[in-house]
Amino acid sequence: MSWLERTELLLGPEKLEKLKNANVLIVGLGGVGAYAAEMICRAGVGKITIADSDVVEVSNRNRQLAALVSTTGQSKTKILGNRLLDINPELQLNLVNEFIRDEKALQLLKSEPFDYVVDAIDTLAPKVFLIHHSLNLGLKIVSSMGAGGKINPSLAQVADVSKSYNCKLAKMLRKRLSKLGIKKGFPVVFSPEEIATHAVRIEEGQNKKSTVGTISYMPPVFGCFAASVVITELVK
């Protein structure tokens, strides 16, 4: 019995073959990206590249797939890579244990003939860079907006970036991309739910200016939405 029997029953053999022949890049393996990667793997995508430079921290345990007591301090790419290969030992997997920004993003995007890119980066500048160059190279991309501060999963949705609203990250992203001549043309996962002021703590860090409270299930919801975009597009 094939481990993809249920998937084939739903999609049919031709679409399953499309997934087996597909090549997907996931950048960012936090609360959103790791779940997106796993769902894409479990759907039967045959070639996956995962990229992230982070290690598991104690504060990740409330929401991130890789985060366990036993994995604290370990590389997220290595943990997720082992997990994906344990799901599909025949998976062609590439691990990129680097912070993807500037020229590294461009090099990565050109390194393989990717059929789809998942942007699960939570830092604005490299996020803009990845989206900009993906679109310039003619690559399909889905981008996750902020899951932090959200608590109602029924409000999560997918729309063209131009139709996203009431999301601070989406607003900043649209502003930056507009300066680069990009105002629409790729899907984003977002939620218009209001963020309570008590859920945000201002603090200066290397890559962020604030910390937003996050509930366990919202980043996985965003990751599953992103995976659904990739999978449904790949089997068209």
TrEMBL record:
SUPFAM superfamilies tied to this protein: Activating enzymes of the ubiquitin-like proteins
Gene3D superfamilies linked to this entry: NAD(P)-binding Rossmann-like Domain
One protein family per Pfam: ThiF
Domain THIF-type NAD/FAD binding fold: residue ranges: 10-232
Top-rank lineage group of the source organism: Bacteria
Coiled-coil intervals: none
GO molecular function list: tRNA threonylcarbamoyladenosine dehydratase; ubiquitin-like modifier activating enzyme activity
Classification via InterPro entries: ThiF/MoeB/HesA (IPR045886), ThiF_NAD_FAD-bd (IPR000594), Ubiquitin-activating_enz (IPR035985)
GO biological process, one term: cyclic threonylcarbamoyladenosine biosynthetic process
Protein name in UniProt: tRNA A37 threonylcarbamoyladenosine dehydratase
Source organism: Tangfeifania diversioriginum
Upper lineage: Bacteria, Pseudomonadati, Bacteroidota, Bacteroidia, Marinilabiliales
